[in-house]
Amino acid sequence: MTESDMTETPDLTHFVERFDDGRARLNLAVEGMTCAACMFEIEGGLGALPNVTNARANLTSGRVAIEWQADGVDPVAVVGRLRDLGYKAYPYDARRMESEEQQEARFLLRCLGVAAFAAMNVMLLSVSVWSGNVSDITPEQRDFFHWLSALIALPAVAYAGQPFFRSATRAVLAGRLNMDVPITLGVVLALALSVFETLHHAEHAYFDSAVMLLAFLLAGRWLDQNMRRRTRAVAANLAALKAETAVKFISADEISEVPVAAIRPGDLVLVRPGERIAVDGEVEDGRSEIDQSLVTGETAHVSAERGTLVYAGTLNVNGTLRVRVGAADRGTLLDEVTRLLDHAVEARSHYVRLAERAARLYAPVVHLTAIVTMLGWVALGATWHDAVVTAIAVLIITCPCALGLAIPAVQVVASGALFRAGVLLASGDAIERLASVDTVVFDKTGTLTLPEPELVDAGRVSPETLALAGRLALASRHPLAAAIARAAGATAPLDDASEEPGQGVSAIVDGDDGLVREVRLGRPSWCGAEAEATRVAAADPEASVIVFRDGAAVTVFSVRQRLREDATAVLAGLRARGLAVELLSGDREAAVGHVARQLGVTEVRAAATPADKIARIEALRAAGRKVLMVGDGINDAPALAAADVSLSPVTAAHLTQSASDAVFLGDRLQPVAAALDITRRARRIMHENLWLAVVYNAIAVPVAIAGLATPLVAAVAMSGSSMLVILNALRAKPRSAGGDPGLASGRPRTI
Amino acid sequence: MEVLVYLVPLALSLGLLGLGAFLWSLKTGQYDDLDGAAWRAIMDDDQLPPAAAQKKAPPPQTP
């Protein structure tokens, strides 16, 4: 029996969570669940399975959780059931990291709930006091209301203020100042002053300002966290949907498809033609050609035989291989990439966010103003009590309420716009970094070109021939055959097609004249068309040729990496925006030069190693350029991390995606240009918002310094400026909803 | 002004009731799937999928 005939059963037990009470749960990322009808269909279909106690779909995150009792359900049956319903599902490893994020989101929401409750109730009491102050409130009633406010505000702040207090403590202990330091100081001083004033039966207390400030800031904090969590969930789904599995030998002639996470060094895995190799290792048996373009960018195939080291992410082209999984003997290339990557990621973390830069400027100015106010009033002959009260009023009114919302609100709107444009952000501050880019460096293979090769000259061949070749091609997993099948749009495979390993596929078909004839698709030598193939190959040295023989007639197809449809237009657009565009590829000089000429790029570097790529990026950065790197190969990963900001297509290798700041979807390059436009607009609005906050302070601070900032003034100013900033942030949404590559109803359709 | 003796505790307890309801809804995962919940609301009861119709067990938490 041959290896391809062996039965294989995917092993999903690795992903099943088991609980003490006998329940078991499986989390799946589901591809294609885009609407409410899908959600109900999936829940109904899974719920009908025997022993399933619960099936719940989450439309927001695109996942399904299935629970059952004891060992009543085979996880494979669940995936099979979903496949029958028309959905591809992949087990999702619910990592601890993510549940921590969920915890944090819930904690922030609880804090927000508590702060909002306190703000509403304290404000109710405050409005009574304010209206009483101008009419007939007695000092006793006012004290009662103030004590009641304290009763609500003090515990509420103690609870809801925790995110700020913790962060401020950490910053101060580390000898830094962040935005949370003035917030904490302002809130604590406002409460202390209010209690003190209440004890002395004073007219004004600032309980309402303190809790309202916290409520506004927590809203900003939660929006910020929610955006990051949502984009990360999408990215994690994409990773799961890439279905990183390997076919492992569980005995000498029995194989099983298992997730890569469950593969151990020393395991023997089977790699069939047309499959991507999921592990690093050494070839034990078999002979094939390997396409390493995803790893090195080099498009020419290398041959593999017993003893050859193969890398995860490379494509096995034409033979079946048995690979012994290695860990210690990792390829020198991957080791090099990992080392460079660690180094580059470390350097990246020095980026200072816009909000932090604002805080560094802001905190000392505010604290200095408060001290100067206090000393100024004392010098003018005011009592220490009045001077301190005025100084604290300055701190309260300058508390960065609008500032705390200025940037998160814009980020939420901009990331929503990016999502619709097909760009998924992995980090929140990528918006700011994308906006400041002035140089864009592209990788070639898989980035400017489509990840899969395409038939070059489909129009030259008669439709009947192409259709027949396409149907025959369906019998093979070879990437060149797959390109022909795609070009022909073939769906019905020929009966009894057989594959000759390393050569091609053949079948017997009935002709119109009643005679049977043999058709072959494969190597030129196997199809007896070497002369024609050599001629075609000479005309286009980058293309790979595959021959189709129908009886006596021979057709030579040439298949090559094709540029993304809109690559030329997008690159021209980037240059028109004043950006410098460069090409940095690991592929051969000739192949890169051809693409560069087509795209009109003059700054080109070919045959670059991962270290060369980093060196070029660092040279650009040293020259003061802000570099956006766009790449998909594993060899690009260090360069992606070294650049100021990076993008990779969704087809990129896993390691590469995790090194980049954002992932773009679809077959077009347009999302790259859209990302730059949206983020530039967003940054402009962030700056506007910061200036709005400055203008607000310029008006409010003199009022406070003059000692006129009553709690009523503080409340009006605070909510007014916050509303203004939020309304302005909504402008970050592009006016036209244009550009919708591969997206339906705001979520990925084609992955 | 004796009415304050009733009104103030009443106002506070109503507020706390609201806060309690919010914390409860948060705890039972009602904010986990905002897109799906919008559609569940308009789903006709007689067309409920069998799983949802039979089972009243609390939903498993989707990560």
Overview of the structural elements:
The complex is a heterodimer of chains A (751) and B (63). Chain A has 25 helices and 30 strands. With 751 residues, chain A is an alpha+beta fold. In chain A, strand 19 and strand 20 form a beta hairpin. The two termini of chain A are 35 Å apart. Chain B contains three helices and no strands. Chain B has helices at 4-27, 34-41, 50-54. The relative contact order of chain B is 0.09. The chains are: A alpha+beta (751), B mainly alpha (63). The A-B interface holds A 25, 27, 35-36, 39-41, 43-48, 52-61, 63-67, 92, 94, 98-99, 102, 106, 109-110, 113-114, 117, 120-121, 124, 141, 144, 148, 152 and B 1, 4, 8, 11-12, 15-16, 18-19, 22-23, 26, 31-36, 39-40, 43, 47-52, 54-55, 57, 59-63.
Biggest interface, chains and residue tallies: A-B, 46 and 35 residues
Query: Which class do the helix and strand fractions of chain A yield?
Result: alpha+beta
**Low-confidence runs of chain B (pLDDT<50, min 5 residues)?**
50-59
**Main sheet of chain B?**
none
Q: How much helicity do the residues of chain B have? A: 55-70%
Residue share in helix of chain A: 40-55%
Mean pLDDT of chain B: 73
Strand order of the largest sheet of chain A: 1-8-7-9-15-10-13
Instruction: Return the average pLDDT of chain A rounded to an integer.
Output: 80
Spatial shape of chain B: elongated
Q: How far is the N terminus from the C terminus of chain A?
A: 35 Å
Number of strands of chain A: 30
Total number of strands of chain B: 0
Structural class of chain B: mainly alpha
The biggest sheet of chain A, with number of strands, parallel, antiparallel or mixed sense and barrel status, is:
7 strands, mixed
Percentage of residues in strands of chain B: under 5%
Strand content of chain A: 15-25%
